[in-house]
Each structure stands twice: as structure tokens, then as C-alpha cells.
Amino acid sequence: MSPSTDTSKRQKYLPVPLALLCLTKELPVDVYWCLYPGADPVLLRGQNIEIDDDEFPKLLEGGVETVYIPRDQGEVFQQHLQENVRSILNNHDVPIAQRMAFLNSTGRTMLQEVFRSDNLDKTLESVSVLSEHMTSLISQDEIVAGELFDVLQHDYHTYTHSYNVASYAMLLAQEMGFRDEAELRRISMGGLLHDLGKLRIPNQILTKKERLTEAEWQTIQRHPTDGFVALAERAELTFDQLMMVYQHHEKLDGSGYPVGIDGDEIHVLARICSVVDIFEALTSNRPYRNPNSTKEALEILDKMAPTKLDGDMVKCWKALMQK
Ligand SMILES: [Fe+2]
Ligand SMILES: [Fe+2]
Predict the structure, then answer these.
(1) CA 267 from chain center: how many Å?
(2) How far apart (Å, rounded) are the C-alpha atoms in residues 316 and 173?
(3) Which pLDDT band holds residue 97 (cuts at 50, 70, 90)?
(4) Phi-psi bin for 17: left (phi > 0), alpha (psi -120 to 50), beta?
(5) Which residue numbers are catalytic?
(6) Which of 68, 121, 290, 305 is least crowded, fewest Cβ atoms below 10 Å from its Cβ?
(7) What are phi and psi of 53, to 5 degrees?
(8) Ligand 1 centroid to residue 98 C-alpha, Å
(9) For residue 254, how far is its CA from the centre of ligand 1 (angstroms)?
(10) Residues 220, 283: Cα–Cα separation, whole Å
(11) Which ligand is nearest to the Cα of residue 277, counting in written order?
């Protein structure tokens, strides 16, 4: 594909996982697809035309993973998703793994769009809606962490990482005794926002294969503070959520950043966030290294506890992942 075609495609179309469309009967947007890798998208299905139940699943089976929505219809598409997510998530005829996968696709698509928009009002609105869906799915059904791991994507994008960390943080918090649904929702929202400060870090630093320079490392270390400063005055967020953003890289022995506080000074939700954040980073595919297996990642967490990470939380997370 020539770079110009690639760029204009990115500007004109929003890539959407086809799996996301398999559970809807009608769409208020046009759907395009590429007949071969790198081709210009062509119309697959016009807006508001009824879709056969097996039409999209068949394409998916045939190997089509991504379709495209015109960017100028992006808002309508988001609206449509938000209106339909609740009914799909509450439809117990759809197997739980499929609903988890659907929410994962929806969530990543929503986060990708709002993180890209660089609009804090929009971001908080979407994150709030998404956290509500995540909580309703996780608190209504018996979610097995290993199954959740299997339906998640494990790429290096901040929106993927944030979605995964939020899901894991909720599961770990629930296992640690947090049962109140409103509290779990706040935890999920904190997880979705924990790396907000990273959105301003240039991609070439985040994906750099070589050793980081001192200046680049300092830029990375600023992200908890930058996220905290951006969110601190928002009335819709609680102190607990802000601590997830500000303290998720602090370590119990004081060796973390941005401040280097230790022990109980680190908020309990930040400690939860820290365990699952490291686990997520280790098990995701990064441009500079291959992912660790679940087993390897759990062993690394084990070595970091109880000096750097909360021993009970690591134990709990291991038990959840090994269920
Ligand atoms: Fe972070
Ligand atoms: Fe993170």
C-alpha cells in the first residue's frame, strides 16, 4: 500500500472490528470493506438496510476482521453502539464469552475515538458510559479471569491497555472484597483513565526499541502527574480515582514514581491498579519485545511482592488467573 492511500484511508474511515457488528440487525451508517489488503474500501452494506443474522458472522469466519465506517458518520455510529450495548450485554441468550468480546470491541473503539479527539469532556462522558457497561457485565455474571484474558486484545495501544487494566482492576477489586456496584464502576473508570497522561507522550518514545535517554525516561515518568493535573478539577471524579491516576507507578518500597511515596501512603486502589497494570504490560505485545506468557508474568509479579507490590493482591490476582 502506498503511504498516501494509507493516510487518506485513515482520515476518511474509522476501522471497526467486524465482530462488533455481528450482534446488530440494522446500522445507521454505511459499512465499507477492503477486498484485499491495502485496497481502497468499497461499500459493503448501505445504512439502514436490514442485515441477515448470519451475514457478518460468515464474513468473520471467512477471515474478514476489520470493516470501515466513514469518519463523518463516526458520531452516529458511537450513538448507535451506546444505544444497543445495554440490550446486547443483558441478552443472556448470547454466551458470556461473546458478550465480553462484544464489550471489548465496543470499549476499544470508543476509547480509540475519544483518546484521539483530545477532548476531555467527551472522554469523561464516554468513559463513564463504558464503565457502567463493564460493571453491569462483570457484576451480573460469573466472569472467569482466564476467559476474559482470552477475549481481550493484547496490543500496545493505550486504549487497549486502558480497557484491559480497567477490566482487571475491577475483577481484582471484587476479589479483594469490593462489592458495591457504584464503587466497582468508579474503579473501572479510574482504570480507563489511569494512563490519560500518556496520550501526550510522542509515539516514538512509547514504542522505542532502543534504550530510552534520560530525557525520554523523564517524559514517560511525567504521565501520572500530567493525567492527575488534567483530571484533578473535574467534579465527576473522586479522590480515589485520582489516586489511581497519580499513584499507579508508586512502589511499596518507595522506588516508584512520580513522588516515591511508600507503604500505606499509596492508596489501596492505586496498589490494585499497579498490580494489574504491570501484569497487562507484561502480557501485551510491545514493539520492543514479545509478550510474556500469563505464567511468566505471574512469576514476575511474585518476585515483586511483597517488597514492591502488595503481597495479598498479587496472591489474589494469581488465584484469579489460575482458576
Ligand atoms: Fe502508567
Ligand atoms: Fe498503565
Answers:
(1) 22
(2) 10
(3) confident
(4) beta
(5) 198
(6) 290
(7) -55, -40
(8) 29
(9) 16
(10) 20
(11) 2
What's the pLDDT score for residue 16? 84
CA of 280 to the centre of ligand 2 (A): 8
pLDDT on residue 95: 79
pTM score: 0.85
Give tens-digit pLDDT for 238-262: 999 999 999 999 999 999 999 999 9
Ligand 1 centroid to 78 CA: how many Å?
27
Q: CATH number for the 90-322 domain, one of 3.30.70.360, 3.30.70.1560, 1.10.3210.10, 3.90.420.10? A: 1.10.3210.10
The pLDDT of residue 82 is above 90: no
Q: What is the CATH topology of the domain spanning 1-70?
A: Molybdopterin biosynthesis moea protein, domain 2 (3.90.105)
- Reading the block at residue 162, the C-alpha cell is 486502558
Cell (9 digits) for 51 = 442485515
Residue list, CB under 5 A from ion ligand 1: 195
221, 227 in Cβ contact below 8 A? no
Q: Grid coordinates representing 145?
A: 479471569
| Domain residue ranges of the chain, discontinuous segments joined by + | 1-70, 90-322
CA of 322 to the centre of ligand 1 (A): 25
Which residue(s) pair with 42 in the sheet? 33
Q: Does the pLDDT at position 63 exceed 50?
A: yes
- Nearest ligand to residue 198 Cα: 1
d(CA 81, CA 20): 9
